[in-house]
Each structure stands twice: as structure tokens, then as C-alpha cells.
Amino acid sequence: MSIILPETDEDGFLLHLDDWSEEVGRAMARADGEDLDQQKWDQILKAREYYQQFEIVPPVRVFAKHIGTTEKALRDIWKRGPMNPIAKYGGLPKPTGCVQAATYKRISAVFVMKSTNKIYVAEMIAASMILPPPFVRQKPCPV
């Protein structure tokens, strides 16, 4: 049985996220010559769960940590950058590679080192609204 693929952008990502189904995702992969074994399919479903919870396609480092593996293992499985095919066949938006700076907020914290009684002020950029703790970056991604 042949499935008619929904409308996509120039990179093959769905224009309307609601058009996705497992059949569509598998058909998109077949059209690209990608073999989706169970391990890859499980990762696609985990990425969809992550997206539903945080409304963002995670960077590969965050996703690897989220599913309890390493970036290297993900790259070995997918043979290239894993987040593009994971997002594409999962019906998710195109990954940005990093979280845009506009989504960060500045957090100031004061620390007192007990051994010396010195006070330290630390300023961090945190993505607490979109990434689950403890994912904190020290500076925003370039825009």
C-alpha cells in the first residue's frame, strides 16, 4: 500500500505538524532511503515525547542525556547528525542546533564560600523555561 506524503518544506520537514502519523514518518524515511529499525523508531518517539513536554526539538547533547545515551552512540546509530532525521521522521519542526538566545533568562546568584567567608556573585544564562534542569548554559547560542 502506498501512502501520499503530506506537504513538506524544501528540506522535507512537514509544513503542518498535525499531518504526522507513524505511517507518514515511515514513508518519509523510505522515500529518503533510511532504514528505521526499532532502536531508531524508539528514539523518534522519545523525541516526540520531549517535544510535547517542552515544545522544542532538543539539541543532540540534551537529547542524548534525556534518553540515557551518549552523543557518540546517537551519531553511530544514525551515521550523521541524528536530530535532523529524528525530527523529520517524527513530524517535528526543523532543529535549530541550539536554543535561541531570546529564550534564555539571566539569573544572578550569590554564593558564600564557608572556608574563606568570601562572597561570590555568579551570573548565568539559564534556559529553565524550555530545558529541564540541570541544563544550564553559561552563554547563549549565537543568533
Descriptive terms for the model:
single chain, 143 residues, alpha+beta, 2 domains, 3-stranded antiparallel β-sheet, 5 helices, 36% helix
Task: Give the SSE map.
Blueprint: H1 22-32, H2 38-54, H3 60-67, H4 71-78, H5 83-89, E1 105-113, E2 118-126, E3 136-137
Antiparallel strand pairs: 1-2, 2-3
Explain what the structure shows.
The protein contains five helices and three strands. With 143 residues, it is α+β, with helices and mostly antiparallel strands. A three-stranded antiparallel β-sheet has the order 1-2-3, with no helix packed on it.
Order of helices and strands: HHHHHEEE
Low-confidence stretches: 99-105, 125-143
Number of helices: 5
Rg, nearest Å = 19 Å
Structural class by sheet pairing and helices: alpha+beta
Q: How do you describe this structure in short?
A:
With 143 residues, this protein is α+β, with helices and mostly antiparallel strands. It is 36% helix and 14% strand.
